[in-house]
Amino acid sequence: MGHLITVATCNLNQWALDFEGNTKRIIESIHKAKEAGASLRVGPELEICGYGCLDHLLEQDLYLHSFQCLETILRDESCYDILLDVGMPIIHRNVRYNCRVICFNGKILLIRPKLYLAGDGNYREQRFFTPWLRPQYCEDYYLPRMLWDLQGSNKVRIGDAVISTPDTTIGCETCEELFTPDPPHNHMSLNGVEVITNSSGSHFTLRKLNTRLQLITEATRKNGGVYIYANQQGCDGDRLYYDGCAMIICNGKLLAQGSQFSLTDVEVVTATVDLEEVRAYRFAPSRGLQAVKAPVYERIETRFELSSEAGDLDTRRVPSLEIEPRYHSPEEEIASCTGAYLWDYLRRCGAAGYLVPLSGGIDSCATATIVFSMCRMVIEAVKAGNEQVIADVKRLAKFTDRIPETPEDLCGQIFHTVYMGMSKQSSKETRQRAKDLADAIGAYHVNLDIDEVYNAQRNLIVNTLNFEPKFKVEGGTIAENLTLQNIQARSRMVTAYEFAQILPSTRKRPGGGSLLVLGSANVGESLRGYLTKYDCSSADINPIGSIDKSDLKRFIAWAEVNFNLPCLHDFLTAVPTAELEPITETYVQSDEADMGMTYDELTVFGRLRKVDKLGPYGMFQRLVHEWGPSRPRVGGDKTPVYTPKQVAEKVKRFFHYYAINRHKMTTLTPALHCNDYSPDDNRFDLRPFLYPPFFQSIGFKCIDKDLEKMEARQKGSTDGDIVD
C-alpha cells in the first residue's frame, strides 16, 4: 500500500448568489487539482452559494439552487477520480446547517454539518444556521429527488463522522471550529484521523494572518497530521475582503501557501506528504494513553485510495519541503487588500470607474493612492496573462481600442478626481497638492470652486430669515460657524455625485455610464464623529473607513518609495485641516485642535472601547496608569504623559463626542473592514445612537470619585502623609 499522497486546497473568488459562476470556479479548481496529481480537493466554506449571502440564507430558493449546482458537479465526469470536499448549506428536518459535502465519482459519501458557529465581530452565523450539537453522532439524510439516480439511494449519512479510505482517514473542520478552545481536530486526531480539512470564510483584518497561521500550525504541531486549509478570496458582495492564503501543513511544518491578495479567481495549491511521517510523529506513549479513551467516530468507508503503490515507485515524486510563511507588512496589506477589493467591486458592479473628491489632505490622498495601487495590480495581472482581468479591462477601459499598458494609462480611463475649493477657505497648497497627485498617477482631474453654490445656500438664510451668519473668526456663534462649514461640506457631496454622473458623458466615453464615488473618512474621525453628516464622507464605498490615521500615514510613506510618488511627501508633512473656515494671518483650522485629541489618542480610545470592551470608567482606570508619568518608557516610546486629571478630561471628551455623534454612524458609507475597532453601525459595531448625556452618567461620576481620591493621595504624599 502506498503512503505518498498529494492533496490540494484553493482560494476561490466566489460571489454571493452567483451560483453558476461559483460552480464554474469550483469545477475549474477541481480540474487544476487533478492536473497537479492531487487525490483530495478542499474548497472554501459555503463555496457553492458564496459565504456572504446573509439573510438570503433564510430563503428556500438558496437551498434548492445549491443542490442544483452540486448536481452539476456530481454529474460532471471530468470531476471524477478525486475526493471532493465541497461547502454548501443544507436543510435537514426543517433545520438549516452549514455543511461540508464529501463526494467521490458522482456520489455523496457524507454530509458533515458545522459544530460551532461564528457569532462575533462581522459574523452572524447563528442567525442563519443551527450548530450540530451532537459530536460523533450521525443519522440518515434524505436526499432531494434530483440526486436519487446518481446516488443509487434516497439517503446518505449526515453528522460528525470521518471518511475511511484503505490507506488513511480524513476528517473535516469548518472555519470557527479551529479557533475554539477544544477544537474537533483534537478528538479526530486521537481517533486516528490523519488528514484534516478546514474550509473557511475568513475575512481580512490588518495584522491577522500571523494569528491564523499560528493556530493552524499549532493544531498539527501538537497532534501531528496533515492540515488542509481553504479560504475564499476577494469581495463577495459586502464590506469584507476574504484574504485567501490557502495552506497545507504537516506535523507543524508549512508545506504550501497560497496568495493572501490576488486578482486570480481560482488559485490551487498542492503538497505531497508522506503518511508514514504522521504515524511516526504520533509515537508518544502519553498520546497513546489518551487515544485509547478518545471518542469514537463513525467511519464512512470508500475503496478510493489517496495514495498508490505506483506513486511510491515513482522516484520523481518527493514529499514537499517545509517553506517559510509569507507575511506582508501592514502597509503592503493596505495597498493590496484595498486594491483587490476595489477591483472586484468595480468589475462586478457595472460602473464606469471611480471618482474621489481630492482635498489635498492625507485621507483623500490615501484613497487616490489606493486606486492607483489597484491599477498597478491590474496591469501586473494583465502582463501575467490573467484572462479574466484582461476581459474586465477591455470592458471598462473603453476610451481606446488597445489595452492600457501602464497603471497611469488605466487610471486615466477609469479614475477621476475633483478638487472643490473655496476662494477664502482653500489654500493654494492644498489645491496644488491635489493637482500634483492626480498628475502623478494619471487620473482625470477637475479643479473647480464651489463659491457660487455656497453663496446661493448662504443667501437663503440671509434673504429668508433676515440674518447674516458669520464664521467664528468673524465673530459668529458656534451655531453660525457650524452652519457655514456644513453648507460647504454638503455642497461638495452634491457636487461630487453630480460630476460622477456626468463626467463619462462629457469625456465621450463609449456607452457613457457613471462613476462610483469613493469616501475618505478614516476610522478615528468616524469614531469621534468629526465629520459632517451627508458631506463627502457620504459616498458609495469607503476603502479607508476602518483604517486609522497612523496606518494611513505609514502607508503613504511606503507608497512614496514603492510607487515612486515623490509628491506624497508633501501630504505627510502638511497639518491635517478641513479647510472649512476662512484662513487668516493668525488662524488656520486644525483637525486635532478641533477634536481636542490627537489621532494617535483616538486610535487608543477606539481599541479600548471595542477590542478591550471598556466603558468610560474602565478606560480611565486603564489609561491613568498607561499614560501616567510613572510608567516605564524605553527609547522611541511615544506614549503620552498625562496627569490623572488630564486623562479624565480626555476620556470624558472622547465619550461625550462619541455619544452625541453616534447617529452619524447609521448613515456612514459602507467601508471595507480592516480593523477590529471599526465603528461600522450596520454590522460590526452594534450600539444605540441615542445616548443619555455622558456628563451625567454614573461612569463619569465614578471617574470623578477616583480622581478626587488620587489627587488627595498625591497631595498627602507631597505633604509627607499618605492618604488612603
Rg, please? 29 Å
Shape: globular
Q: What is the β-strand count?
A: 20
The SS-based structural class is alpha/beta
Strand proportion = 15-25%
Share in helix: 40-55%
Number of helices: 24
The average pLDDT is: 93
Q: N-to-C terminal Cα separation, in Å?
A: 77 Å
Low-confidence stretches: none
Structural description of this entry:
The protein is α/β, with parallel strands linked by helices and 724 residues long. Helices cover 40% and strands 16% of the residues. The chain contains 24 helices and 20 strands. Strands 1, 2, 3, 4, 5, 8, 9, 10, 11, 12, 13, 14, 15 and 16 form a 14-stranded mixed beta sheet that branches. Strands 19-18-17-20 form a four-stranded parallel beta sheet, with helices on both faces. Helix 2 (60-75) links the parallel strand 2 and strand 3. Helix 15 (451-465) crosses helix 16 and helix 22 runs parallel beside helix 24 (698-718). The protein is globular, with a radius of gyration of 29 Å. The N and C termini lie far apart (77 Å).
Features:
40% helix; 14-stranded mixed sheet; 16% strand; globular; 20 strands; four-stranded parallel sheet
Write the layout of secondary structure elements.
Layout: E1 4-12, H1 19-35, E2 40-42, H2 60-75, E3 83-92, E4 95-104, E5 107-113, H3 125-128, E6 138-142, H4 148-151, E7 155-159, E8 162-164, E9 169-174, H5 184-190, E10 195-200, H6 209-223, E11 226-235, E12 241-243, E13 247-250, E14 253-257, E15 266-274, H7 275-281, H8 285-291, E16 299-301, H9 309-313, H10 330-349, E17 353-357, H11 362-383, H12 387-396, H13 407-414, E18 415-421, H14 428-441, E19 444-449, H15 451-465, H16 478-506, E20 515-517, H17 523-528, H18 549-562, H19 568-573, H20 591-595, H21 599-610, H22 616-626, H23 644-660, H24 698-718
Parallel strand pairs: 1-2, 1-11, 2-3, 8-16, 9-10, 10-11, 17-18, 17-20, 18-19
Antiparallel strand pairs: 1-15, 3-4, 4-5, 6-7, 8-9, 11-12, 11-13, 13-14
